[in-house]
Amino acid sequence: LFKGYISRAPIETDMELKIGNKIKLRAPTESGALLVKNLYVSCDPYMRARMRDFHGSYLPPFRPGSVIEGFGVSKVIDSDDQNFKPGDIVSGFTGWEEYTLIRSTESVRRVAADEDIPLSYHIGLLGMPGFTAYAGFFQVCSPKKDDYVFVSAASGAVGQLVGQLAKLHGCYVVGSAGSNHKVDLLKNKLGFDEAFNYKEEPDLDAALKRYFPHGIDVYFENVGGDMLDAVLLNMRLHGRIAVCGMVSQHGNSDPKGIRNLIHVIPKRIRMQGFLQSDFVHLFPRFVDEVTALYKQGKIIYVEDVNEGLETGPSAFVGLFSGKNVGKQVIRVA
Ligand code: NDP
């Protein structure tokens, strides 16, 4: 359960585990609802914004005392919606609980049974984070073969796919991450040309100059702050910056200004924020293309799977200190 609104970084005790609610395993008639058993739920950085008492965002805040809502993969137990039947595997908004009555099936889609695709991938590689990488890279970055591409939070749920798609597109790709283990993953498993641990770089501008002596054409922005400032110094003429997220700035009540923003003018940089939901019409194409690439062995996906709902709070909090290695999911059942 979500306990109450916060304006600082989340801590585990902002959430609590409640045991023992008895529920009826039936979807009420004429409700249009689905009763599902949750198999996996997703930990995503955007959920932090729902812990604030702020109503101007694209998703409403969580209600204090209510079950945390998020993406999940679930099995339909009972259905009052003619599009779903018991036994179907679905993906969409559900609750951090064992069983959920999903009253609005708007976000819910049936997942094709495929023994080659792990079920958890429907909240990762083939779910919202994977789609963010696909839509952000192809629709916002305007990538060209041989572009110099930089990805921050590169080993995470979104970043790891951005880098692999960029490589397949013929780009030169460098990623940054917060540990040497993650750097090793990027270079030796995920196929990035280079990677560096930003926490060990006293001068980010110098680090970027080392990896991009000719400058950066495309920056896929996941972190904001000092990294964005250093990137602006290293962008090439007509470079593109896709602003996907700024995880270092979430809940930051005193964000530092971006000192080097003025470089967008002489370098004619296009800097564009986006939400993956802007491109929802491309979702079926994304699923087909990325499924095929995965089955052909052209991309891989790294997950960090926690066992049991009781591990949810620590897994979620860990997103903001870089504890997760790859896409953070929680196996519920
Ligand atoms: P990740 O799986 O990458 O997890 C978050 C990672 O961010 C951590 O592992 C950590 O990696 C890094 N991080 C955390 N705090 C900081 C910090 N203070 N400074 C620098 N890095 C930090 O998350 P996702 O891939 O799911 O999300 C990546 C970004 O994309 C987020 O900003 C998210 O909000 C955004 N997003 C945007 C969407 C959109 O539609 N625009 C949709 C989905 C995600 P490390 O160890 O490398 O520091």
From TrEMBL:
Q: Where in the numbering of this chain does the Enoyl reductase (ER) domain appear?
A: 20-330
- Report the Pfam families cross-referenced here: ADH_N_2, ADH_zinc_N
Report a single Gene Ontology molecular function.
oxidoreductase activity, acting on the CH-CH group of donors, NAD or NADP as acceptor
**Which of UniProt's keywords are assigned here?**
Oxidoreductase
Instruction: Determine the domain of life of the protein's source.
Output: Eukaryota
Q: Which InterPro entries match?
A: ADH-like_C, ADH_N_2, ER, GroES-like_sf, MDR_fam, NAD(P)-bd_dom_sf
UniProt-recorded name of the protein:
Enoyl reductase (ER) domain-containing protein
